[in-house]
Amino acid sequence: MTTVSETKKNQEFMLEAQGLYLKFGGVNVLTNVSTGVKKNEIFAIIGPNGAGKTCLLNCINRFYQPHQGKIIFEGADITRLKSHQIASLGIARTFQNVELFRGMTVIDNIKLGSHVHLNTGLLSAGFYFGAARKTELGLRKEIEESIIDLLEIEHIRKKTVGTLPYGLQKRVELARALAMKPKVLLMDEPVTGMNLEETEDMARFILDIHDEWGVTIVLIEHDMGVVMDISDRVCVLDFGVKIAEGLPSEIRHNDEVIKAYLGEKDITYSRLGA
Q: For the chain, is the Cβ count within 10 Å smaller at the N or the C terminus?
């Protein structure tokens, strides 16, 4: 029986994993993982390579089907929904490896993120008139006046994505996710492979999306400077098991986390000047 205190605790979470198990070929990659993300917080998931971090995100947006457990979003069980249904609920995703259409322009890649909100009829969409044209023009205006401006990519909006450096491609992928108008944004290693300047820019964009747009953010990241600077809470996985969860200051000094992942007690952070 669920107690009153447990019910109250669960209601605090906008997105929650409850007792997730996931296995491949008999090997457990997630074992009884339970965690929750509060509305309008930046929630980081950290851990060594192979800890199950990306697998957890893949369960949330239904790339993987957990063998046991539930995913709860805004009080509803979404564990059995398909990926496109998860997207239409307002859960967007960026990936560790850039997943863009390299032969298309920046603006066209970004517009693809809004397909989950388009509801024009087949005829008008096919011939591009009436409601379809109006929707398309409105979408382009919204993207150009908000997302492109926010992420400072006006100068590349007409360029082919495949010609851009890696850091800008990551920014375009983020823009496409924002075009989905997400309530929750899942980000898998957003600053991996970036130099210091690119990392600081991306961290600033994440904070702007959180602060100005009110988007709840779940991010996987190995850069502890970024994690400790911008996260409200941190969850730590090791070999598919949650070993700690709490404030960045608590995680930073957690002996079990240090032993499993961080490797030293004196972690230097505040690389963003916060």
A: N
For the chain, the domain total comes to: 1
> What mean pLDDT do residues 166-186 have?
93
CA 111-203-201 angle, to 5 degrees, is 75
Q: What does each C-alpha distance from 69 to 90, 92, 169, 222 come to in angstroms?
A: 21, 21, 35, 26
Q: At what angle do helices 166-178 and 196-213 cross, to 10 degrees?
A: 10
- Closest C-alpha to 220, from 36, 95, 107: 95
* CATH number, domain with residue 28: 3.40.50.300
Question: Can you give the length of the chain in residues?
Answer: 274
Cβ atoms of 247 and 234 closer than 8 Å: yes
Outline where DSSP puts E strands in 50-155: 68-73, 76-77, 91-94
Q: Domain range spanning residue 207? A: 11-90+182-274
Give the count of beta carbons closer than 10 Å to the beta carbon of residue 8: 9
pLDDT tens for 88-147 read 999 999 988 877 888 899 988 888 877 655 554 444 444 445 555 666 666 666 776 789
User: Does a structural domain hold residue 194?
Assistant: yes
Q: Indicate whether 84 belongs to any domain.
A: yes
Starting at the edge strand that comes first in sequence, how are the strands of the sheet with 241-246 ordered? 91-94, 184-188, 216-220, 42-46, 233-238, 241-246
Residue 176 lies in a domain: no
**pLDDT per residue over 53-79, tens digit each?**
999 999 999 999 999 999 999 999 999
